[in-house]
Design the sequence.
């Protein structure tokens, strides 16, 4: 059973093996059913590739990520500053808070995109403020708590294992599942290609 690597996208077998496969193909009747030797349609290949890429993209945190309590921590802190307290109009106060948050380049670089995607009003901050402050006093990691409506709850996502053995309640941008998926998907696609290329080339069609 020879393996020929001169033109792997055409065939992986020798001419003798291809001839034997062709003879067997035409000899076997398969109970009256006939099988042609057509290529897999290109749209089907692209559809499979699109499905794989979409499956990975849809599970990345960018899509459908809920806001965590940490992104509002600075806004809640600024609410009690004299400068913000002096502003009586909630909308103006919120604009002033957002300007200060954006001025904090370190904080905004980390949470800016999520703050922009999940804007809140002063009333929203007033509602979640006691809950966020209670979590802060308890020493909780605010990134592991999601803001859902007017409630702050522990995230229902279980991510990677922390060094202390506990489960991280954050959605990682990459985890072991992605690595395993890439391994098995690559193995599957490679196996299918090898099996197909061990058959006679698609330029040959059996005579039924």
Sequence:
């Amino acid at each position: 059973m020879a393996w020929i690597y001169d033109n792997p996208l055409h065939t992986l077998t020798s001419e003798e093996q291809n001839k034997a496969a062709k003879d067997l193909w035409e000899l076997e009747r398969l109970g009256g059913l006939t099988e042609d030797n057509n290529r897999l349609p290109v749209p089907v290949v692209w559809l499979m590739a699109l499905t794989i890429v979409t499956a990975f993209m849809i599970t990345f945190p960018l899509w459908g990520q809920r806001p965590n309590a940490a992104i509002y921590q600075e806004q809640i802190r600024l609410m009690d500053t004299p400068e913000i307290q002096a502003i009586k109009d909630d909308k103006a106060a919120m604009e002033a808070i957002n300007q200060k948050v954006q001025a904090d380049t370190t904080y905004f670089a980390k949470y800016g995109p999520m703050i922009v995607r999940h804007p809140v009003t002063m009333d929203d901050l007033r509602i979640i403020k006691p809950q966020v402050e209670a979590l802060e006093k308890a020493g909780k990691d605010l990134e592991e708590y999601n803001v859902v409506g007017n409630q702050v709850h522990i995230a229902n996502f279980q991510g990677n294992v922390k060094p202390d053995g506990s489960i991280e309640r954050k959605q990682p941008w990459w985890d072991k599942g992605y690595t395993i998926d890439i391994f098995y998907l690559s193995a599957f696609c490679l196996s299918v290609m090898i099996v197909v290329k061990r058959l006679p080339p698609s330029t040959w069609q059996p005579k039924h």
Remarks:
- The two ends are 27 Å apart (CA to CA).
- The helical segments are 15-27, 42-58, 73-79, 82-85, 90-103, 105-117, 122-137, 176-197.
